[in-house]
Amino acid sequence: MNSEQEEFERSYLGETAPRSPWMAAGLSLLSPGLGWLYVGRLPEALLLNGALALVIVVAFVLWNMLEFFPLLPFGLLAIGLAALVLMTLLDVMRTAWLRGDRFVLREYNHPLAYVLFAAGTWFLPIVIVSGWTFTTQWMVVEVQDDAMYPSVLEGERLLVHRGHAELERGDMVVVDLPPQGRRIVRVVALGGDEVAFSDDTLFVNDRPFPRATLDEVGRRELAALTGDLREDMDYFVERDSRVAWPSVSPRVAHMAELEATRLADDELFVLHDHRGRTSDSRDLGPVPRETVIGRPLYVWSTPDGGGSDAHLSRRVGRRIQAAPIAP
Protein backbone atom coordinates (compact mmCIF):
# COMPACT_ATOMS: atom_id res chain seq x y z
CA MET A 1 0.00 0.00 0.00
CA ASN A 2 1.54 3.31 -1.05
CA SER A 3 1.69 6.40 1.12
CA GLU A 4 -1.05 8.26 -0.76
CA GLN A 5 -3.53 5.43 -0.25
CA GLU A 6 -2.60 5.16 3.44
CA GLU A 7 -3.17 8.87 3.85
CA PHE A 8 -6.54 8.55 2.05
CA GLU A 9 -7.70 5.79 4.40
CA ARG A 10 -6.51 7.62 7.49
CA SER A 11 -8.46 10.66 6.36
CA TYR A 12 -11.73 8.98 5.38
CA LEU A 13 -12.16 5.39 6.62
CA GLY A 14 -13.81 5.15 10.01
CA GLU A 15 -13.97 8.88 10.56
CA THR A 16 -17.19 10.75 11.13
CA ALA A 17 -18.24 13.97 9.48
CA PRO A 18 -21.53 15.88 9.57
CA ARG A 19 -23.90 15.59 6.61
CA SER A 20 -25.40 18.92 5.63
CA PRO A 21 -28.98 18.74 4.29
CA TRP A 22 -28.28 21.74 2.07
CA MET A 23 -25.16 20.16 0.64
CA ALA A 24 -27.17 16.99 -0.04
CA ALA A 25 -29.82 19.06 -1.81
CA GLY A 26 -27.25 20.92 -3.90
CA LEU A 27 -25.53 17.73 -4.98
CA SER A 28 -28.89 16.18 -5.88
CA LEU A 29 -29.66 19.13 -8.14
CA LEU A 30 -26.28 18.80 -9.80
CA SER A 31 -26.74 15.07 -10.41
CA PRO A 32 -29.80 13.31 -8.93
CA GLY A 33 -27.91 10.32 -7.46
CA LEU A 34 -25.08 12.41 -6.09
CA GLY A 35 -27.06 13.32 -2.99
CA TRP A 36 -27.46 9.62 -2.18
CA LEU A 37 -23.73 9.14 -2.56
CA TYR A 38 -23.11 12.01 -0.18
CA VAL A 39 -25.25 10.41 2.56
CA GLY A 40 -23.68 6.97 2.09
CA ARG A 41 -26.30 5.17 0.01
CA LEU A 42 -24.28 4.00 -2.99
CA PRO A 43 -26.78 1.38 -4.37
CA GLU A 44 -29.58 3.95 -4.49
CA ALA A 45 -27.25 6.46 -6.13
CA LEU A 46 -26.25 4.04 -8.88
CA LEU A 47 -29.83 2.86 -9.43
CA LEU A 48 -31.27 6.37 -9.65
CA ASN A 49 -28.69 7.83 -12.01
CA GLY A 50 -28.63 4.71 -14.15
CA ALA A 51 -32.42 4.65 -14.48
CA LEU A 52 -32.68 8.36 -15.27
CA ALA A 53 -29.86 8.22 -17.82
CA LEU A 54 -31.55 5.24 -19.49
CA VAL A 55 -34.87 7.08 -19.69
CA ILE A 56 -33.21 10.10 -21.30
CA VAL A 57 -31.33 7.93 -23.80
CA VAL A 58 -34.54 6.07 -24.73
CA ALA A 59 -36.38 9.40 -25.15
CA PHE A 60 -33.70 10.67 -27.56
CA VAL A 61 -33.73 7.40 -29.52
CA LEU A 62 -37.53 7.44 -29.81
CA TRP A 63 -37.42 11.07 -30.95
CA ASN A 64 -35.00 10.10 -33.72
CA MET A 65 -36.98 7.02 -34.74
CA LEU A 66 -40.37 8.73 -34.78
CA GLU A 67 -39.01 11.85 -36.52
CA PHE A 68 -41.31 14.16 -34.65
CA PHE A 69 -41.33 16.15 -31.46
CA PRO A 70 -44.25 14.92 -29.35
CA LEU A 71 -44.56 17.83 -26.95
CA LEU A 72 -47.24 16.28 -24.74
CA PRO A 73 -45.44 12.95 -24.07
CA PHE A 74 -42.10 14.67 -23.58
CA GLY A 75 -43.73 17.29 -21.37
CA LEU A 76 -45.26 14.58 -19.19
CA LEU A 77 -41.88 12.83 -19.08
CA ALA A 78 -40.18 16.05 -17.99
CA ILE A 79 -42.79 16.59 -15.26
CA GLY A 80 -42.32 13.02 -14.05
CA LEU A 81 -38.55 13.37 -13.95
CA ALA A 82 -38.82 16.68 -12.11
CA ALA A 83 -41.16 15.12 -9.54
CA LEU A 84 -38.77 12.20 -9.02
CA VAL A 85 -35.81 14.54 -8.54
CA LEU A 86 -37.81 16.64 -6.07
CA MET A 87 -38.79 13.57 -4.02
CA THR A 88 -35.17 12.41 -4.06
CA LEU A 89 -33.98 15.82 -2.95
CA LEU A 90 -36.37 15.88 0.01
CA ASP A 91 -35.45 12.33 0.99
CA VAL A 92 -31.68 12.91 0.95
CA MET A 93 -32.13 16.13 2.96
CA ARG A 94 -34.09 14.16 5.55
CA THR A 95 -31.47 11.41 5.61
CA ALA A 96 -28.66 13.94 6.01
CA TRP A 97 -30.51 15.64 8.88
CA LEU A 98 -31.17 12.33 10.68
CA ARG A 99 -27.56 11.16 10.39
CA GLY A 100 -26.14 14.51 11.39
CA ASP A 101 -22.70 14.29 13.05
CA ARG A 102 -22.85 10.48 13.44
CA PHE A 103 -22.23 9.71 9.77
CA VAL A 104 -19.19 7.48 9.17
CA LEU A 105 -17.33 8.41 6.00
CA ARG A 106 -17.10 5.80 3.25
CA GLU A 107 -14.38 5.35 0.67
CA TYR A 108 -16.43 7.21 -1.90
CA ASN A 109 -17.11 10.26 0.30
CA HIS A 110 -14.42 12.21 -1.46
CA PRO A 111 -14.69 15.14 -3.92
CA LEU A 112 -12.89 13.20 -6.63
CA ALA A 113 -15.32 10.29 -6.25
CA TYR A 114 -18.25 12.71 -6.51
CA VAL A 115 -16.86 14.19 -9.73
CA LEU A 116 -16.22 10.78 -11.28
CA PHE A 117 -19.66 9.50 -10.26
CA ALA A 118 -21.55 12.50 -11.67
CA ALA A 119 -19.53 12.52 -14.89
CA GLY A 120 -19.73 8.80 -15.56
CA THR A 121 -23.34 8.10 -14.61
CA TRP A 122 -25.06 11.36 -15.53
CA PHE A 123 -23.27 13.93 -17.67
CA LEU A 124 -21.38 11.59 -20.01
CA PRO A 125 -24.45 9.60 -21.18
CA ILE A 126 -26.40 12.81 -21.78
CA VAL A 127 -23.54 14.46 -23.68
CA ILE A 128 -23.00 11.37 -25.83
CA VAL A 129 -26.64 10.85 -26.81
CA SER A 130 -27.38 14.55 -27.37
CA GLY A 131 -24.15 15.00 -29.35
CA TRP A 132 -25.00 12.00 -31.51
CA THR A 133 -28.53 13.32 -32.04
CA PHE A 134 -27.56 16.80 -33.17
CA THR A 135 -24.57 15.77 -35.28
CA THR A 136 -26.04 12.78 -37.13
CA GLN A 137 -29.85 12.95 -36.83
CA TRP A 138 -31.00 16.58 -36.69
CA MET A 139 -29.83 19.99 -37.82
CA VAL A 140 -31.15 23.55 -37.84
CA VAL A 141 -31.36 25.38 -41.19
CA GLU A 142 -32.17 29.07 -41.61
CA VAL A 143 -34.55 30.14 -44.40
CA GLN A 144 -32.49 32.55 -46.50
CA ASP A 145 -35.21 33.93 -48.80
CA ASP A 146 -38.92 33.79 -49.62
CA ALA A 147 -38.66 30.90 -52.11
CA MET A 148 -40.88 28.72 -49.90
CA TYR A 149 -43.36 31.46 -48.99
CA PRO A 150 -45.97 31.09 -47.55
CA SER A 151 -45.11 27.65 -46.14
CA VAL A 152 -42.05 28.98 -44.34
CA LEU A 153 -40.90 32.56 -43.99
CA GLU A 154 -37.59 34.25 -44.61
CA GLY A 155 -35.51 34.30 -41.42
CA GLU A 156 -37.22 31.33 -39.80
CA ARG A 157 -34.95 28.55 -38.56
CA LEU A 158 -36.23 25.04 -39.21
CA LEU A 159 -35.53 21.81 -37.37
CA VAL A 160 -34.45 19.35 -40.07
CA HIS A 161 -34.32 15.57 -39.75
CA ARG A 162 -31.37 14.28 -41.73
CA GLY A 163 -31.76 11.51 -44.31
CA HIS A 164 -34.20 10.74 -47.11
CA ALA A 165 -35.04 7.05 -46.91
CA GLU A 166 -38.84 7.46 -47.09
CA LEU A 167 -39.45 10.48 -49.30
CA GLU A 168 -42.94 10.99 -50.69
CA ARG A 169 -44.53 13.46 -53.05
CA GLY A 170 -45.29 16.61 -51.15
CA ASP A 171 -42.36 16.38 -48.72
CA MET A 172 -40.46 19.55 -48.03
CA VAL A 173 -36.72 18.82 -48.23
CA VAL A 174 -33.35 20.53 -47.95
CA VAL A 175 -31.12 19.83 -50.94
CA ASP A 176 -27.48 20.72 -51.59
CA LEU A 177 -27.22 22.01 -55.17
CA PRO A 178 -23.84 23.51 -56.07
CA PRO A 179 -23.34 26.33 -56.80
CA GLN A 180 -26.68 27.40 -55.26
CA GLY A 181 -25.85 25.63 -52.01
CA ARG A 182 -28.57 24.52 -49.63
CA ARG A 183 -32.09 25.09 -50.87
CA ILE A 184 -35.47 24.29 -49.32
CA VAL A 185 -37.80 22.84 -51.94
CA ARG A 186 -40.93 20.72 -52.33
CA VAL A 187 -40.83 17.23 -53.87
CA VAL A 188 -43.58 16.95 -56.49
CA ALA A 189 -42.43 13.84 -58.33
CA LEU A 190 -40.31 10.80 -57.53
CA GLY A 191 -38.11 8.47 -59.53
CA GLY A 192 -40.07 6.83 -62.33
CA ASP A 193 -42.72 9.58 -62.48
CA GLU A 194 -43.41 11.56 -65.64
CA VAL A 195 -43.55 15.35 -65.23
CA ALA A 196 -44.77 18.04 -67.63
CA PHE A 197 -45.84 21.71 -67.64
CA SER A 198 -48.49 22.93 -70.04
CA ASP A 199 -50.65 26.07 -69.93
CA ASP A 200 -49.21 26.95 -66.52
CA THR A 201 -50.35 23.61 -65.14
CA LEU A 202 -48.17 20.96 -63.54
CA PHE A 203 -48.81 17.39 -64.68
CA VAL A 204 -47.51 14.30 -62.87
CA ASN A 205 -48.09 10.96 -64.58
CA ASP A 206 -50.49 12.60 -67.07
CA ARG A 207 -52.66 14.01 -64.30
CA PRO A 208 -52.80 17.70 -63.35
CA PHE A 209 -51.92 18.57 -59.81
CA PRO A 210 -55.27 19.51 -58.24
CA ARG A 211 -55.45 23.19 -57.44
CA ALA A 212 -58.15 25.13 -55.65
CA THR A 213 -58.34 28.82 -54.80
CA LEU A 214 -57.89 29.48 -51.11
CA ASP A 215 -61.19 30.80 -49.74
CA GLU A 216 -61.54 33.54 -47.14
CA VAL A 217 -61.57 31.10 -44.23
CA GLY A 218 -58.40 29.50 -45.52
CA ARG A 219 -56.80 32.93 -46.04
CA ARG A 220 -57.56 33.90 -42.44
CA GLU A 221 -56.09 30.63 -41.17
CA LEU A 222 -52.98 31.14 -43.28
CA ALA A 223 -52.64 34.75 -42.16
CA ALA A 224 -52.79 33.61 -38.53
CA LEU A 225 -49.75 31.40 -39.18
CA THR A 226 -47.68 33.62 -41.47
CA GLY A 227 -48.75 37.14 -40.57
CA ASP A 228 -50.27 39.54 -43.10
CA LEU A 229 -50.60 37.93 -46.53
CA ARG A 230 -48.91 39.60 -49.47
CA GLU A 231 -51.50 41.30 -51.60
CA ASP A 232 -49.51 40.87 -54.82
CA MET A 233 -50.14 37.12 -54.84
CA ASP A 234 -53.06 34.76 -55.31
CA TYR A 235 -53.14 31.80 -52.97
CA PHE A 236 -54.04 28.24 -53.90
CA VAL A 237 -54.13 24.84 -52.31
CA GLU A 238 -52.33 22.15 -54.27
CA ARG A 239 -52.68 18.58 -53.17
CA ASP A 240 -50.86 15.38 -53.97
CA SER A 241 -51.83 12.11 -52.32
CA ARG A 242 -50.25 13.14 -49.02
CA VAL A 243 -49.47 16.83 -48.55
CA ALA A 244 -51.16 20.16 -49.36
CA TRP A 245 -49.50 23.52 -49.65
CA PRO A 246 -50.57 27.03 -50.72
CA SER A 247 -48.72 28.50 -53.67
CA VAL A 248 -48.59 31.70 -55.65
CA SER A 249 -50.91 31.84 -58.64
CA PRO A 250 -49.44 30.73 -61.97
CA ARG A 251 -51.03 33.89 -63.43
CA VAL A 252 -48.38 36.02 -61.74
CA ALA A 253 -45.65 33.42 -61.45
CA HIS A 254 -44.46 32.13 -64.79
CA MET A 255 -44.25 28.34 -65.12
CA ALA A 256 -42.32 27.49 -68.25
CA GLU A 257 -43.51 24.93 -70.75
CA LEU A 258 -41.93 21.52 -70.29
CA GLU A 259 -42.47 18.46 -72.40
CA ALA A 260 -43.19 15.23 -70.60
CA THR A 261 -40.02 14.08 -68.85
CA ARG A 262 -39.55 10.68 -67.23
CA LEU A 263 -37.46 10.80 -64.05
CA ALA A 264 -34.73 8.26 -63.46
CA ASP A 265 -35.10 6.04 -60.41
CA ASP A 266 -32.63 8.16 -58.40
CA GLU A 267 -34.07 11.56 -59.42
CA LEU A 268 -36.58 13.96 -57.88
CA PHE A 269 -38.53 16.84 -59.38
CA VAL A 270 -38.65 19.73 -56.92
CA LEU A 271 -40.35 23.13 -56.91
CA HIS A 272 -40.48 26.16 -54.68
CA ASP A 273 -43.84 26.94 -53.07
CA HIS A 274 -43.37 30.52 -54.23
CA ARG A 275 -43.74 29.73 -57.91
CA GLY A 276 -42.35 33.10 -58.90
CA ARG A 277 -38.89 32.00 -57.71
CA THR A 278 -36.62 29.91 -59.90
CA SER A 279 -33.54 27.76 -59.19
CA ASP A 280 -35.64 24.64 -58.90
CA SER A 281 -36.33 21.77 -61.30
CA ARG A 282 -38.05 24.09 -63.79
CA ASP A 283 -34.67 25.51 -64.80
CA LEU A 284 -32.16 23.14 -63.15
CA GLY A 285 -33.88 19.93 -64.15
CA PRO A 286 -34.41 16.90 -61.89
CA VAL A 287 -32.11 16.67 -58.87
CA PRO A 288 -30.32 13.52 -57.72
CA ARG A 289 -31.89 11.94 -54.67
CA GLU A 290 -28.46 11.89 -53.02
CA THR A 291 -28.49 15.72 -52.87
CA VAL A 292 -31.24 15.60 -50.23
CA ILE A 293 -29.83 16.46 -46.80
CA GLY A 294 -33.02 16.00 -44.84
CA ARG A 295 -36.63 17.06 -44.27
CA PRO A 296 -37.66 20.19 -42.33
CA LEU A 297 -40.27 19.18 -39.80
CA TYR A 298 -40.69 22.05 -37.33
CA VAL A 299 -40.11 25.75 -36.94
CA TRP A 300 -37.27 26.11 -34.42
CA SER A 301 -37.34 29.91 -34.12
CA THR A 302 -38.71 32.96 -35.91
CA PRO A 303 -37.15 36.29 -36.99
CA ASP A 304 -38.95 38.18 -34.23
CA GLY A 305 -36.92 36.29 -31.64
CA GLY A 306 -39.50 33.65 -30.85
CA GLY A 307 -37.76 30.61 -29.40
CA SER A 308 -38.19 26.89 -29.80
CA ASP A 309 -40.50 26.64 -26.78
CA ALA A 310 -43.23 28.46 -28.67
CA HIS A 311 -42.73 26.94 -32.10
CA LEU A 312 -41.67 23.31 -31.94
CA SER A 313 -45.31 22.25 -31.96
CA ARG A 314 -45.76 23.86 -35.42
CA ARG A 315 -45.03 21.49 -38.27
CA VAL A 316 -44.03 23.00 -41.59
CA GLY A 317 -45.59 22.01 -44.88
CA ARG A 318 -48.86 20.83 -43.38
CA ARG A 319 -50.69 24.04 -42.72
CA ILE A 320 -53.67 23.40 -45.04
CA GLN A 321 -55.29 20.08 -45.86
CA ALA A 322 -57.43 19.40 -48.91
CA ALA A 323 -59.11 16.41 -50.49
CA PRO A 324 -56.72 13.79 -51.87
CA ILE A 325 -56.35 13.03 -55.56
CA ALA A 326 -58.89 10.54 -56.78
CA PRO A 327 -57.24 7.22 -57.66
Describe the structure.
This protein has 327 residues and is of the alpha+beta class. The chain has two domains: 3-136, no CATH class; 143-311, Umud Fragment, subunit A (Ribbon). The protein has helices at residues 3-12, 21-30, 34-38, 42-66, 71-99, 111-137, 216-226, 281-284, 308-311, and strands at 138-142, 157-162, 172-177, 181-189, 194-198, 201-204, 207-208, 211-213, 235-239, 244-248, 258-262, 267-271, 287-288, 292-301. Strands 1-2-14-3-4-12-13 form a seven-stranded antiparallel beta sheet. A four-stranded antiparallel beta sheet has the order 7-6-5-11, with no helix packed on it. Strands 8-9-10 form a three-stranded antiparallel beta sheet, with no helix packed on it. Helix 2 (21-30) runs antiparallel to helix 5 (71-99) and helix 4 (42-66) packs parallel to helix 6. 29% of the residues are buried.
What are the SSEs and their pairings?
Elements: H1 3-12, H2 21-30, H3 34-38, H4 42-66, H5 71-99, H6 111-137, E1 138-142, E2 157-162, E3 172-177, E4 181-189, E5 194-198, E6 201-204, E7 207-208, E8 211-213, H7 216-226, E9 235-239, E10 244-248, E11 258-262, E12 267-271, H8 281-284, E13 287-288, E14 292-301, H9 308-311
Antiparallel strand pairs: 1-2, 2-14, 3-4, 3-14, 4-12, 5-6, 5-11, 6-7, 8-9, 9-10, 12-13
